[in-house]
Amino acid sequence: MRTWRILTLPAFARYWTGDTAVRLVDELTAVAILWYLAAYGHSARELGWYAFWTAAPVLAGGPLMAVLFRRFPVRTIMVGDFAIRSLRYGVLAGALAVARTGTVHWIWFDMAATAHSLVFMATSAGGPGLWPQVVPGSLLKHAMQAEQIGWNIAAVLGPLAAGLVMQRVGLWIILATASALLALAAWNLAQVPLSAGTRTPVAPLQTSRPVNAREVSRIMRAHPPLWQSTALFWSLNFVQGFLWVLWPLLAHAFWNSPGMLYTALLTTQAVGTLSGSVLLPIVVRRPSLLQRILLTESLAGMAMILVLLGLRHPQWAFIAVFVSACLGGSSPFWAMQIRFHATTAEERPVVMTYIRTALQTAGPLGGLLAGFAWHSQRAGMLVSGAALTLTLPPLIGAMLAVRRPLAPPPAADRF
């Protein structure tokens, strides 16, 4: 597979390994913290607020990162992000270790989530800005797909590892280990050779005109697939945030589950996403990138309706989650291609920051809604609403695209 050949480049292999490891640590700790909050007496509303603080502060952090990208080298900002995240895990581990009672006040978790959210965009948006300094331009497409596959591998292994580890060691040990690994990842990124093997740092962004919010808005309006895919992903992220809080509550209320069954569900979802991210780009090559996203996400939303059968029979929930995740597995890759080809190398980090900041606002709102709306007697209604919200926006978009076909994609769009 040509995508994996890019890992023969030592610089990108080192970058990819560190990036995937960081994502794995984040997945593992997120699952462990969420189950800890769901299982040790914290209410659904507190869970919803935690989901809110996990992403909502990005509204302030995203514009801040956009300013920093114009003033400092991209790698410097990303290394600082890893260091701050390492400190976050270390402080939370210390609070848990000192408590020694098995629980600490939920506000510690909200504070840690806020710190993470403020710097989240440094790596999320900075990575694409660093790729041209690590791989030749002809391999950028493969860098995109390799990153997405790496994230999906982390999403598979993270919940699985969390289910195995959190039954044997305390949460504070998991967080202390995560802190050490993030510090190691910061050192690794600082050592990655850039600019065709030189150690010259990536310069701050220099553009012919300032890339601010107004300029980003102009770029979005000039490329309809860019803003259409962004709007669609906002609605999908809203539902994912909703389900992020709903899954542990369903597992705890209906399946009387220890953490293992909950983490097995998340692992099943991640395996489906990984399968889709690898297979769908090979199988689905037409129509345009946007139409591929609309069609596959419509089918993914329909598959989630089977979760209603899984309220009493978990195997149906596992089937629904796997099929839905598989069908939607390549959408982020196709959306990244749309964003990549709508922007220049100079504009990309800032534009990506604004887009991903907007997308990050959806998840906390969905999680907060799930926390406040949760009641076991309303579980079926909540799952139905999530399935409809996943299905209707892409389905309506696909129907409109069929009635009014999009213009043929540019050459760069025909991967």
The main sheet comes to: none
The value of Rg in angstroms is: 21 Å
Q: With helices defined by DSSP (H or I, 4 residues minimum), what is the helix count? A: 17
Give the number of domains. 1
- In CATH terms, the superfamily is MFS general substrate transporter like domains
Fraction of helical residues: over 70%
CATH topology: Growth Hormone, Chain: A
CATH domain class name: Mainly Alpha
The termini sit apart by 15 Å
Given as residue ranges, the uncertain stretches (5+ residues, pLDDT < 50) are 196-209, 405-415
- Series of secondary-structure elements, N-terminal to C-terminal: HHHHHHHHHHHHHHHHH
Question: What is the residue-averaged pLDDT?
Answer: 77
β-strand amount: under 5%
**Structure classification:** mainly alpha
Give the CA-based shape: globular
Number of strands: 0
Describe what you observe in this structure.
- The structure is a single chain.
- This protein is mainly α.
- The protein has one domain: MFS general substrate transporter like domains (Growth Hormone, Chain: A), CATH 1.20.1250.
- Helix content is 76%, strand content 0%.
- The chain contains 17 helices and no strands.
- It has helices at 2-5, 10-39, 44-55, 58-71, 74-99, 106-130, 140-165, 171-191, 213-222, 224-254, 259-283, 289-303, 314-327, 331-341, 348-360, 362-373, 379-403.
- Helix 4 (58-71) packs antiparallel against helix 15 (348-360), helix 10 (224-254) packs parallel to helix 15 (348-360) and helix 10 (224-254) runs parallel beside helix 16 (362-373).
